[in-house]
Every structure is written in C-alpha cells, then in structure tokens.
C-alpha cells in the first residue's frame, strides 16, 4: 500500500497549497469524512463486540430474563477450550477452509489464465461464469440439498451417467465421508468465480512490456509463467485467499441450509456450532466467550497474513 | 495491425476458449435447473427419477405470489367459476386463492434495504476513503486494519448484542436498522476498495483545482468524484451482492416488517409440503435485479474486485 | 403500509357507522409456523375479522427456524405477536418466564372448559406444570406422528403372495414396529413399475427437532421413559434402560435397511416429497399432512392408507405434535387477543376448522358420530391421539432437545458408537441441564 508515488505525493504536498484554500481546513475535512464511518463501525460493530466480551465473563442467558446474572470469570473460556467437541468442529472448519481455498484458487487461477488469452467472446463467458456468486448462499444451500437427493436430484444422475452405476449407490449429504465434500463442491461452485475475477485482475495488471522483454531474452513460455506470471499475480492470489478465508471461516448460511451440520457432526462448522450455543441453547455468556475465541483466532491469523501480504506486495 | 509477442496464438485462443466454455456450461447447469424448476408442476419438480423435459406451467409463479387454501365444496360453490387465469391454475389443484403472499413485501424489503444500504455505504465509504487516501489521518494504518477486521466477526457472534441494542433504540425489525447494519458490515470492504481507486487518481488534478480557487470540498466533489465513478460503481456491485443476499442477520433480526427475501424463499410452503416450483420461481426472480445490475456494470467488475489495481 | 391504511380505513368505517363493535378495532398479529394448516387458519379467521371488526395479521415462520425465531421474540419481550400458537414444548418456558398470559380466569368467565377438549391435548398444549389445572393455552391444533402407506402397492397380488411366502403372514397394516420394519425391508430396493422404490421415509433431520420427533416413536414403545415415574428428574436407568437401547437400535436398523438412500436429514417436507413422488411405500409423518395426501394427484384418492404408530414390546405410544394458542403477555392488545381465543373455542368454528384441514381438539367435533368416517384418516387420527406422549416441556426443553438431536443423529445416521453409548451420553447431558436449572 505504501510505496506508490501518489501516496508519497499526498503525504508531502499540502503545506504550500493548503494555506491558499478557503473554507474548511484539511484536518476538519478529514475528520468530517472519516467520522461517520468510524462512528457507524463503533456503534454497530465495536460496541456489540465489547458487549459480547463483557457477556463472555458471565453466565447470562437471554432466555432466563428473571435469573440473576453472575460473573464467572474465565470459566466459560476454560470450558470451551477443554471441550473435545469444539476441537472437532474446528477440524471440520479447517478441512472445509483448506479444500475450498485450494480448489477455488487452482480452478479460479486456471480459468483466469485461460480467459486472459483473450479469445473471442471471453467477456460473455466471464459474465456467465460469474452468475453463481450472485445468488443468495441460503438459496444455493437449499437448492443443492435438492440436487444432491439420490432419487429426485440431478447430481447423482449426472455423475453416474459418466461413471456408470446406480444413482442411489451414494448419497452426498447422507454419508459421513462424502458430506464434507458436498459442502466443498457447493461452495466451490458458488465462489470460484470470485477467485477467478481477482486472478484475472492480477493477470491483467502485468504490463506487456515485461513479457516482451522476456521474449527478447528468449525465455521459454514455461519460464515466463514461473518467473513473471506467478510472482506478479501472487499478491492477488493472496488477496483472494484472504477474502475466501475470512468469508468461509464465518460460513453459515450455505452449509446450514445444505446439511444442517450433519450427518452427526460431520459438517458442523464453528459458526453453526456457535449459532446452536447462542440461539438454540441460549447460553449467551458461554457463546459470547466462544465468539471471542473465534474472533481472536481469525483476527490473529488475518493480521499475520496481511503482514505477509504487504511484504509480498513491496517486493 | 502490429505484431505483438504477447498476443496468444490462434491455437491457444481456441484451446482456452473451449476449456472456458466447458466450465461455463457445467457451472450454469445448476442455475438452469433452478430456473427450469420454477416452470415445473409440483409433481414434475420432485419427479422420481428427475425429468428434463416437461410441460411448462406458471403454477410456481402463481403459488409464489398467492396464499391458497384447500377448498371445501361449499367454498368452491360460493366462489363461483374462476375469474382469472391464475385462479384457474389454483382451482385445478382444488384450492382457492385466499390472498396475496408475503413474497412481494419481502422482495420490496430487499430492494429498500439492499439498495438503501448500498447507497449509504457508497456515500460514507467514498468520503472515508478519500480522507484516508489524501490526508494524514492519525493512526491511519491501524484504523484501516481495524476497519477491515470488523468484517471478520461472524454475524452470529454479535447478533445478540445487536438484537438487544436495536430493541432499545427501536430499530428492531425496521428498514432503517437493517440498512445501518448492512452499511456497517459493507463499509470495511468498500473503504478498502475505494481507497485503492482514489489512490490511483493523480493528485495533480486536485492541486490544479485548488490553485484555481476551488475549496478542498469542491475539488473532491467536482474533480475526484467523477474520476472515481467507475470505482464507485464496481464497489457498489459487491456491496449490493452482499446486502441483497445476506441471510444470518436477516433471519435473526427481522420478522414481520423488515424481513428480506433470502430467509423467506427457501421455506415457501404450498398446500402440501415444500413448494419447490415456487421456491425456484422466487429464487429466479430474486436473482434478476442483481444480475441486471452486474451485467450493466460488468466492465467495472474487474477493477472493483482488486482495489483498483488493474492498470490500463 | 397498505394493510395499515386499510385497517385505519376499516376501523374508521366501523366507528363512523356506529356498528355493533363496542371494543376498539385492533390490528392483531398471530404467530405460528409456516405450514399448510396456517393457510387454513387465515381462511378461518376471515369470519373473526368480519364479526369483531379486528384486523388479523399473520406471521408464519418456517418450522426449521420457528423455535429460534419465536423464542427469541418471547425472550426479548417483543411485541410482534399478540397471539402465539407456540409448540407444545414451549409451554413450560412460556409459563415460568411469564411469556404467556394465564388463562384460567378467562376460561371461567367465558364458560370455556378444558373438559371439552381431548385430554391429551390439554395436558400437552395447555398445562403447566403438567397435570395441574393451570392453563396457559387453548388447544388449537391436534397433531401426532402416524404412518401413511401405499395401499395400492400393498394390494398388489404378486407382492402379497411374495410377502406371504417370505414372512408367513399377510402384507397389510403392521401390528408391531417389528412387522413395520419387515415391510420396509420388503419394499427396499424393489422395482415397481420400472422404478426402484424404498421402504419407509422416517425422520432423521439434524438441525431442529426432526430425528427426536421420529426416534421417540420407537423408544417409547420399547420401554424408554423420560424419568423415574416415582422420582422426577431421576433419569439413569430409564432414559438408558435396556428397552430404550433396544428401541434406539431398532430405529437405526430401520434407517439402515428400510429408508431411502440419502435420507439423512429428512423431516416433514422431505418425507412428503419422497412419498408423493413414489419413492417409498410408507412414510412417518405428523397427521397434518394427511388432508394433503388425500388430495394429491399421484398418491391421493384412495391410493393411500393411514395407521397409528404400531406397538412395540412394551406398549404403544406415538409422538405428540401440535400446539395450543396463547396470549402473549407483552402484547398491548390482550383483550382483543382473548376475544380471538373466545371466538376460536366455539364449536361451530372448531367444526369449520376441521373441515378446512385443521385438526380440532374439541371433543364435540371429534366425538361427533360422523367424524370418524368424514375422512379416510379421521379414525387413525383419533386412535393416534389416544396414545400420545410428548417430549420434555420443561422451560429448558431446547437445552434438552439439542443433545438428544446430536446423540441420536450421531448414532443412527453417522453410525458413531453404540446405542448404549448414545443414551448414556444423553443421560449425562440431561443431568447437566437439570443441574444448571437447579432441579437436581
């Protein structure tokens, strides 16, 4: 973010000109421009967050309005971190995150690379590919349960058309081994276009002159790909990973509609588990602690990641 | 036409084109299946095994927009012969239309909340992004990361305090409450995206304007805004897609007055269990506005997603 | 906006013309689940609007989020709902947390007697604590789990012959759960008219209450008890008794040998779909679906039969569903809401309710000689309502339901551990809940 000449200019300009302007000073304009945003974020994001943190030290339960609220210190945190089930949901989340990101980056990048070859009509096909990500995730989850039904859905019929066998031989959301893949497939279907768009932008940001120079040096296409394309597109790839990571860590609507967390707890991601604690068991204090732990986890991981991203960008 | 070494060969283009088209066709099948289901009869929609060719009917759309009751003989007699084509469709199933469904209302709510929050988000986001881009704001980097971090919170985690807070402020289940909420959630993304765009606009233009006697505010309004228009448009797409499709907050915080369509659509029930054609019809119609918006602005989609990093 | 304006206009008209309504015309909101009977209630309520001058609005929430959404509303003291047709298990919380208005005085003053309603529905939907005359709701919709079967398939001579040869008895309505499983197994994977069909669609849903509402139909009949009949909240040895374990194993076996592939997260809607599309020979489902089955183009008009949940080794019970109608104590329009209940309790209204597809719980309706023959499923409904048993209705019912969903689903669908493990674990979870509640 930092090194662009424009921002440098921005940091160094004002003094001379600033004096000449009439009306509001830059400083007050800056505040007027930033304040509403900060205020709204404080009110709708930070204030509830602080409230959540406060609640996390209590045994408060929303569904027991008459019960006295007690401070329980760190007991909620202790209970969560010692609960083996929570580690199970973390594992399920990690599995989901790893595979969705990996597959989406591979397919998304490949598509972007192909589209960047500027064949005729690439604009139209890009738009078509982008359609799934405009649907509501809840609706997508809902429809994929329908598509995955071995008897009345389309998925099994299409798969067995190619592989042979009977559509009823397998059940994507009923089988403990297939269900984690069922949610990965639906998420990949929906969000690969997003990764593709970021990658495409990355590829288009590489100036032709670099390839031309490489061509003069008689570097092979293969070599150009690894020494120019990948490094230049890397910040974009990392950005895609960051966004998909954050979004899928919070993933709720699609999976809850698709599998409801089942079979058993196979696809119970942390956000689904959290929703059960908060809005089904109504353990407000406990679930607040859970939320804080999740937030700290994703915040910590994202901070490290953003630092790495900035390093890559500066290179 | 000048020869360029970076221009892919004809063979490469063909090869790339074919692969992309194959992917596009595969990826569009589930979507087409949804759209087709909207035109199936309830029996066809759950046909075992599934049917690809069927006799299209508008029953799903009729069911989407109406509430129907299973009619007793007495009611049928009282109602007389069907007056309209949609009543006729309902009668064929032995039901009478008892009134309009909530779908229209929910859809309108989505329009108000989706577009309202997107507009508000663009106003606030552009202003904040401009300030971050041009001025020395104390703790700038920390503030920026703070803004991004607000997006990391799972919605469920803050839903209870927001619910309690909204209730105290009288914002529960109101359009204004949902607009503010979605604006706040989207602001992080839009400030980051917009800052990228504004960074790209050369300072020289504004400086020239300032020297010509414009105030800083006028310079922002008359010089920067027009230049940032494409960036704003592309950012708006992403804000709209999110606000339009959001589910978790909507399902937890709204009910009677301000509920949007996403929590409503998956659960449309007919007179006998889930009404898949109506669900599909609802999903199809719901896709149309954001699809149109995206197709219109598709040229800017790419720039939007990358913090304006695509250079010409 | 429009409805509000309409109300104002309507109210104005009534006031101006000085019509009979003494009370002020109110805009009442009734909250219920979004399902078939709710549509019928809209139709039924039109009479009330006409008679009282009040305007009715409805808030119907899908079953899978009904409890979350509505309990959230009640717990926060929300004023969205004036009338709540809340699920039977909410009654304890509704009473103890003061969400519902106690209706005893109102019933007495208006000559509404709970003796006029089917006893099981009064206990199930209205009373808290159970079996004491403290009423917080009027039974509104009687419902119970029962079975639907493909009579046309059962009647096929070639299938009858083959069944007789294999099992040594006639193919027909099963007399026990064991027989039901045989029939399911018999149909599983069978080719009928060119398609493969399966045995029975049963409840397996994970997210809300599905699998619990299903498995209890097996558990009850094999000897499962919620607690020691002599000592409340004494669970060990009752919840996880040898009979209960056997019942749970039965349900898993039924799932493994008789349920359609992929039916791992099925509840009411999925079962209906499977049955209507001709995938299964039998389905477990709440009685509310039966009017729809009768009217269906594929499986209706005589092709389907109905039977109550068959007996097991230790008894015959069926899972209670259904709801009572309550007045929400946070409502500012309680008088008008009570007026609605008073209207709804009238025998004529209840009779029309049944006619529209609502299961009235009023004795005058169901004990009418013509009732049992009024619909093919009417007798089955009556027989089923005589054997009902409900899940916990404690204020902490949701906390009790969640571990049950999890333990049962983990064992039955995901195949984790043994039935004994699952029920032992359930005892531990439930004890913890009751300890939290201060009841143990």
UniProtKB/TrEMBL annotation, chain A:
First-listed, main subcellular location of the protein, grouped into a coarse class: membrane
Keyword vocabulary terms for this entry: Membrane, Transmembrane, Transmembrane helix, Transport
Compartments where located: Cell membrane
Keyword ATP-binding: no
Membrane topology: Multi-pass membrane protein
Organism superkingdom: Bacteria
InterPro entries with a match to the protein in the record: MalF_N, MetI-like, MetI-like_sf, Sugar_ABC_transporter
Transmembrane segments: 29-51, 96-115, 127-147, 178-203, 224-246, 288-306
Protein name (record): Carbohydrate ABC transporter membrane protein 1, CUT1 family
Automatic annotation (TrEMBL), chain B:
InterPro entries: BP-dep_ABC_trans_perm (IPR050901), MetI-like (IPR000515), MetI-like_sf (IPR035906)
KW Transport (keyword) present: yes
Coiled coil: none
Chief location: membrane
ABC transmembrane type-1 domain: residues covered: 107-297
Keyword Transport applies: yes
Name of the molecule in the record: Carbohydrate ABC transporter membrane protein 2, CUT1 family
Species the sequence originates in: Cognatiyoonia sediminum
From TrEMBL, chain C:
Signal sequence extent: 1-25
SUPFAM superfamilies: Periplasmic binding protein-like II
Pfam families membership: SBP_bac_1 (PF01547)
Subcellular location: Periplasm
Keywords associated with the record: Signal, Transport
GO cellular component, as recorded: periplasmic space
Statement: the UniProt record of this protein carries the keyword Transferase: no
Membership in a protein family: Belongs to the bacterial solute-binding protein 1 family.
Protein name listed in UniProt: Carbohydrate ABC transporter substrate-binding protein, CUT1 family
């Amino acid at each position: 973010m930092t090194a662009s000449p424009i921002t440098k200019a921005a940091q160094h300009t004002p003094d001379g000109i600033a004096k000449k302007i009439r009306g509001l000073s830059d400083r007050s304009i800056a505040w007027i421009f930033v304040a509403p945003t900060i205020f709204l974020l404080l009110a709708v994001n930070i204030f509830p967050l602080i409230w959540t943190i406060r609640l996390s030290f209590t045994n408060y339960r929303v569904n027991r309005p008459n019960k006295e609220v007690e401070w329980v210190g760190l007991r909620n945190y202790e209970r969560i971190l010692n609960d083996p089930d929570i580690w199970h949901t973390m594992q399920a989340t990690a599995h989901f995150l790893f595979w969705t990101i990996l597959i989406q980056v591979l397919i998304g990048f490949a598509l972007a690379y192909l589209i960047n070859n500027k064949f005729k009509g690439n604009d139209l096909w890009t738009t078509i590919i982008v359609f799934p990500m405009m649907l509501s995730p809840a609706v997508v989850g809902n429809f994929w349960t329908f598509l995955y039904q071995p008897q009345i859905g389309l998925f099994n019929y299409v798969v067995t058309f190619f592989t042979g066998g009977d559509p009823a031989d397998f059940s994507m959301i009923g089988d403990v081994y297939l269900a984690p893949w069922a949610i990965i497939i639906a998420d990949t279907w929906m969000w690969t276009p997003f990764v593709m768009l970021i990658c495409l932008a990355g590829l288009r940001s590489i100036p032709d002159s670099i390839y031309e120079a490489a061509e003069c040096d008689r570097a092979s296409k293969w070599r150009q790909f690894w020494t120019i394309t990948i490094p230049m597109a890397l910040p974009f790839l990392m950005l895609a990973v960051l966004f998909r990571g954050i979004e899928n860590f919070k993933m709720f609507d699609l999976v809850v509609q698709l599998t409801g967390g089942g079979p058993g707890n196979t696809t119970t991601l942390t956000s689904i588990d959290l929703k059960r604690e908060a809005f089904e068991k109504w353990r407000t204090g406990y679930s607040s602690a859970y939320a804080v732990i999740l937030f700290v986890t994703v915040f910590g991981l994202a901070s490290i990641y953003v630092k790495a991203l900035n390093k890559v960008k500066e290179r | 036409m000048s020869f360029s070494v970076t221009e892919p060969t004809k063979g490469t283009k063909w090869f790339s084109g074919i692969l992309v088209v194959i992917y596009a066709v595969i990826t569009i099948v589930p979507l087409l299946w949804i759209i087709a289901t909207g035109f199936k009869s309830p029996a066809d929609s759950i046909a075992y095994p599934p049917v690809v060719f069927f006799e299209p009917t508008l029953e799903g759309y009729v069911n989407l927009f109406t509430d129907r009751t299973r009619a007793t003989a007495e009611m049928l007699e009282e109602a007389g012969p069907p007056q309209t084509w949609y009543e006729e469709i309902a009668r064929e199933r032995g039901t009478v239309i008892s009134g309009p469904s909530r779908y229209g209302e929910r859809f309108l709510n989505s329009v108000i909340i989706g577009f309202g929050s997107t507009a508000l988000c663009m106003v606030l986001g552009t202003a904040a992004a401009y300030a971050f881009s041009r001025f020395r704001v104390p703790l700038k980097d920390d503030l920026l990361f703070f803004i991004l971090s607000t997006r990391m919170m799972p919605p469920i985690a803050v839903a209870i305090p927001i619910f309690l807070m909204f209730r105290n402020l009288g914002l529960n289940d109101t359009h204004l409450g949902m607009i503010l909420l979605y604006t706040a959630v989207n602001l992080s993304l839009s400030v980051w995206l917009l800052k990228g765009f504004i960074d790209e606009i050369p300072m020289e233009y504004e400086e020239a304007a300032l020297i010509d006697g414009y105030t800083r505010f006028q310079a922002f309004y008359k010089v920067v805004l027009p230049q940032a228009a494409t960036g704003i448009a592309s950012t708006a797409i992403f804000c709209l897609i999110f606000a339009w499709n959001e589910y978790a907050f909507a399902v937890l915080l709204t009910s009677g007055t301000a509920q949007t369509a996403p929590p409503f659509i998956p659960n449309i029930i007919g007179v006998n269990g889930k009404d898949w054609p109506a669900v599909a019809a609802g999903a199809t119609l719901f896709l149309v506005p954001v699809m149109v918006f995206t197709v219109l602005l598709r040229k800017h989609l790419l720039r939007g997603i990358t913090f304006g990093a695509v250079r010409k | 906006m429009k409805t509000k304006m309409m109300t104002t206009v309507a109210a104005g008209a009534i006031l101006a013309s000085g019509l009979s309504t003494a009370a002020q015309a109110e805009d009442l909101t009734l909250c219920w689940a979004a399902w078939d009977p709710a549509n019928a209630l809209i139709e039924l309520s039109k009479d009330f609007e006409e008679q009282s001058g009040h305007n009715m609005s409805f808030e119907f929430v899908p079953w899978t989020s009904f409890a979350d959404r509505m309990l959230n509303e009640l717990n926060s003291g929300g004023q969205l709902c004036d009338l709540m047709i809340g699920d039977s298990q909410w009654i304890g919380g509704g009473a103890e947390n003061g969400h519902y208005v106690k209706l005893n005085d109102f019933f007495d003053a208006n000559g509404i007697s709970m003796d006029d309603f089917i006893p099981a529905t009064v206990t199930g939907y209205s009373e808290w604590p159970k079996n004491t005359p403290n009423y917080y709701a009027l039974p509104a919709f009687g419902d119970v789990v029962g079975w639907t079967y493909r009579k046309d398939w059962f009647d096929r001579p070639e299938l009858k012959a083959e069944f007789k040869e294999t099992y040594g008895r006639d193919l027909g309505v099963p007399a026990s759960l064991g027989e039901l499983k045989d029939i399911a197994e018999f149909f599983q994977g069978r080719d009928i008219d060119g398609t493969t069909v399966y045995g029975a669609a049963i409840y397996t849903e994970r997210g809300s209450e599905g699998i619990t509402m299903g498995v209890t139909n097996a558990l009850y009949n094999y000897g499962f008890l919620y607690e020691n009949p002599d000592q409340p909240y004494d669970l060990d040895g009752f919840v996880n008794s040898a009979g209960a374990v056997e019942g749970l194993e039965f349900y898993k076996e039924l799932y493994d040998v008789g349920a359609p592939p992929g039916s791992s997260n099925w509840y009411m809607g999925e079962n209906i779909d499977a049955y209507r599309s001709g995938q299964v020979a039998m389905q477990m489902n709440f009685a509310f679906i039966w009017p729809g089955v009768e009217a269906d183009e594929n499986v209706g008009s005589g092709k389907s039969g109905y039977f109550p949940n068959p007996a097991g080794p230790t008894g015959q019970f069926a899972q209670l569903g259904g709801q009572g109608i309550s007045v929400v104590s946070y409502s500012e329009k309680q008088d008008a809401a009570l007026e609605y209940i008073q209207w709804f309790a009238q025998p004529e209204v209840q009779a029309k309710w049944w006619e529209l597809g609502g299961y009235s719980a009023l004795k005058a309706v169901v004990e009418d000689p013509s009732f049992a023959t009024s619909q093919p499923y009417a007798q089955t409904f009556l027989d089923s309502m005589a054997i009902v048993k409900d899940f916990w209705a404690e204020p902490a019912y949701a906390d009790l339901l969640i571990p049950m969903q999890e333990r049962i689903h983990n064992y039955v669908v995901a195949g984790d551990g043994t039935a004994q493990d699952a029920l032992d674990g359930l005892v531990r979870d439930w004890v913890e809940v009751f300890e939290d509640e201060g009841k143990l």
